[in-house]
Structure prediction request, 670 residues.
Amino acid sequence: MLKLFLADLKMITRNRQALFWSLMFPLMFTVIFGLFFGRENNIAGTIILIKKSNSEMAQNFEKALDESKLFTIKKESNLEAAKKEVGKGQVSAIVEIPESFGEKNLENPVKIKLYEDPANSQVNAVLIGFVDKFFNQINFQMQNTKPLFGYEEEKTTQKKLSYFDFVLAGILGLVLMNSSIMGVGIAMSKYREDKILKRIMTTPLKTWKFVVCEVLSRLILNLLQISIILSIGVYGFSAHIYGNIFVLLGVALIGGMLFQLIGFMIAGIAKTTQAAEGMATAITIPMMFLAGVFFPIDALPKRLYSFVQYLPLAPLLRIIRSVALEAKPIWDNPNNLAIVGGWMIVMLFLSMYKFRLSEE
Amino acid sequence: MQNIIQVKNLIKKYGKLNAVDDISFEVKKNEVFGLLGENGAGKTTTLEIIEGLRRATSGEAFILGHDIKKGINNIKEKIGVQLQSSAYYQFLTLQEILSLFGSFYQKSLKPMELLEMVDLKDKARSYVNNLSGGQKQRFSIIASLINDPEIVFLDEPTTGLDPLARRHLWNIITKIKFQGKTIILTTHYMEEAEVLCDRVAIMDRGKILTMGETHSLIEHLKEPFTISFKSKQIQEKTLSDLSKLSEVKKEPGKVDAFKMNLKTQQEVNAALKYLAEIKPEYLNVGRATLEDVFIELTGKTILEDEEKNA
Prediction:
């Protein structure tokens, strides 16, 4: 059995092209999201500042805008030229500080002008929020009053977390799902098509030994994938992983096994390799978007959420995030473990029922 | 001689189709037994039932004394199987594949010795995909020998090979026979069966039409002699004289070429007398072949059938 396990490992590492692409896809996501959201980067977008006033108020506004680090600020003097840049999509909004801004004129106060590109609503929302907050404070100061109502902010975790951390944990689940469902589903179908499974059937090798060696060798691949992605996320893009790395790898192994079982089920049902490819894609792509790899799924319509939260990847991602980002134990939310366990049992039975080395 | 395979009333149904239709046969130790027939005759299905790859609808088979229904694991230790057009792992070398398959058995032979036997020693570190068609088949055959089996099953071992590679493979199969192994092979090449097989069973539509020692099947033909000839100037009279002895058939796919099957030596002599008058460009007198046996039994040639399928 050891020989078969080692042979399986050899085959995985020698199939350079498949190995490359199984790593390339999640790595691409890691790098793209890392570039956008990694490295403590909170910048919402680029804006143009046209400052025509040198009043104290104008200076304070510019300083506050600068210190907020919410935007990349470009300076410009000509409004038309600035509008052209917005038109080209290079800039999301323009903030114009008119000449007499900041002079006390109670009758007819001069206001800051915001020119927004409707296509960049996210940047606009941040900009309006900033400007609103700035002037509220100034107004209260000028009128020498204090706000009566307000709010206090308290984070549910004291740990520093960013959107990239959320996505990185999602990508870990994604790579487990893709490489296991695609890898096992397609490889086993190809083995069937090439009659390799049939050839093995002619030997006294027990089916369970064949399957166990396949699963174990692929789990090693999973560990390698997870380690590479975590290293790039943490060292390349300053992601925060607070949990124990070994516990996280343990969760990855559970996930890998679950998705491999789905892969075996696909190989059991699909009659050709092409059919297996189609089925694997039909399962992985919707799950990638609906199970919460890139965004929290509780924002989805309630009916949809009540369904998608039980997809195999969804509870796994909840466990990965709670272990990796909040340093909680695996069993922190037993429901998630129960759903993953339930899926594993269902898939185990389905693949045992459907997956055969022989054609009969 | 001892029967090491016994098949009794084997039936395999797929829906209404009887792929194997109540066949029985025995294979003796150290013989080469051939299952002959066109594609779809049920040869491979029969073989795969005996190998434990398919379940029979009814009937029984015993291999080396073990019932295939109960003792298939014991059987698998002692048989070697070469499947029709089976591939091997893409990313393992020949030596690694043999060593891996050897690890599935209680006893196994040394990979390099097997590779040497079929002149593939220098390819030991190559992948299967880098081999030619003939080399792949040779490898496939030695892979079936890795456990030093008592019985070797070869399913269409030379299909798709050029004539030279085919003859090379025949030598290898003969070598295996001389190692004391029993071989069961399927083929639709009559010439191959004639060269290699001690006994053959001719199958058609799931049934065994006839079975026996290869030479004896030919000798017991109604018309065991053949004359083939080519002549552009054959006259009606000659044709009519010859037709009195036996049917003169045109050779399929050839111009001005004819063939006759004859019952006795006297008939051969008479036909030759008529043919001497027209001085044919080509004349061949010979013994009938297995192909003639097949034609006599089924009324068709395998070639005709394959053309129909193409």
In short: Chain A has a mean pLDDT of 87. Chain A touches chain B at residues 3-4, 7, 10-11, 14-15, 194-196, 198-205, 358-360 (CB under 8 Å). The beta strands of chain A are 45-51, 71-75, 93-97, 113-116. Chain A has two domains: 2-38+162-354, 45-142.
